[in-house]
Amino acid sequence: MRELVVISGKGGTGKTSLTAAFAHLAEKNVLCDLDVDAPDLHLIAEPTLQRSGPFLAGHLAEIDPTICTGCGTCKEVCAYGAIHQEEEHFVVDSRHCEGCKVCVALCPEQAIDFPERLCGTWYESDTRFGPMVHAQLDPGQENSGKLVTLLKAKARERASQLGLELILSDGAPGIGCPVISSLSQASLVLLVTEPTPSGLHDLERVAELCRTFRIRSAVLINKADLSPEYEAAIQVFCQAREIPVVGSLPHDSAVTKAMVRGQAVTEGPDTPFGTKVRQIWTDLQPLFEASPSSLSKESKS
Ligand code: SF4
Ligand code: SF4
Question: Domain 2-56+121-300, CATH 3.30.470.10 — does that match?
């Protein structure tokens, strides 16, 4: 089984539009949206929900008002200021509870329950591109890395059940915990960047992540006509790091028009931009099988 993870250091590089186009071009794949804080692949893929379930992570103190005698011990011992009094009862503010369990241990009445915390919801859906696994982390919740790990496991399970050989994942922006989780077991990471100072800076960071985790990577320069100077700088960086550049795409209104139609840019009438994306998809295929050393040779040629 192969897994292509599409990431970018920053948002707004066109990562999700390109992932949707690849999902359209890949004949059989499981689509996976790992941007659990702000998922948007569903806007193009238009999934039909098949299954969903709670994402539980960590624990949360909950005071049973029928047992609580109002002694106030829990409020005194909570180092996070998560407990306050409401009339004769004490209550836990879930936004501030860190799940340390101190109040649970010290309550003389055993009035405090400690259930797992509901942090979000995972979904399994069908789309016109194939099955899709996605999720939504609840506002203010952490543990996005754990949710990414859960989605990746579900995507692998679904691919195995259906005999599909490719998982295509839209990663989260940045280089934080969810991105690191998304790199796990990836066959190839496509780094989508744009030729700007921040694009180059973020590319350097995500390329370093891939190098640290010894995962083969390739670079796609999107909106390449924004700055020939920075496009050249990205090419120089990639050559120095022996990372293959699979293509440069211009800024093109075809992407926005396709999004407005709820389509991938390769769906609908042929456009010069869509043709270039098709070529990049074709050029990516040998990189799945290439050894790191042969990737280096390609980048040098
Ligand atoms: S320590 Fe227990 S009994 Fe005392 S106020 Fe807190 S929940 Fe109520
Ligand atoms: S579990 Fe810890 S953080 Fe949460 S309310 Fe109890 S003492 Fe405070």
Answer: no
Among the listed residues 238, 233, 271, 237, the one whose alpha carbon sits nearest the alpha carbon of residue 255:
271
Q: Is the C-beta atom of 68 inside 6 A of ligand 1?
A: yes
Neighbours of 187 (CB within 10 A): 16
Angstrom distance (rounded) from CA 16 to CA 264: 10
Per-residue pLDDT tens digits for 70-123:
999 999 999 999 999 988 889 999 999 999 999 999 999 999 999 999 999 999
Which of 76, 101, 114 most suits a substitution to test ligand 2, by most atoms within 8 Å of the C-beta? Answer: 101
Q: Residue 113 C-alpha to ligand 1 middle, in angstroms?
A: 11
Question: What is the CATH number assigned to the segment(s) 61-114?
Answer: 3.30.70.20
Total-model pTM: 0.86
Domain ranges of the chain: 2-56+121-300, 61-114
